[in-house]
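User: Quick sanity check before I run a bigger batch. Here is a single chain. Can you write out its predicted 3D structure?
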Amino acid sequence: LVIEALSHASKVRGSLNGAIFHSDHGSVYTSQAFRNYCSSLGVRQSMGAVGTSADNALAESFNATLKREILRDRKVF
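Assistant: Done. Predicted structure follows.
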């Protein structure tokens, strides 16, 4: 699924060469297949320290605000 999402982003943007993909240490992001795919697109992977939730605090706060403002009383994004 993450390879498919990255593939779609590459097609939409034209190129992801030089992009940085920041994620947690989930198995889908650390798999050899995903690492190879990132490399083939010129995407550099970035991962926060294990057990450090502060890395994602800003992104999570932004996403929460975005969902709250866009969704309001809807249940589906």
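The first helix runs from residue 2 to 13.

User: Great, the batch can go ahead then.
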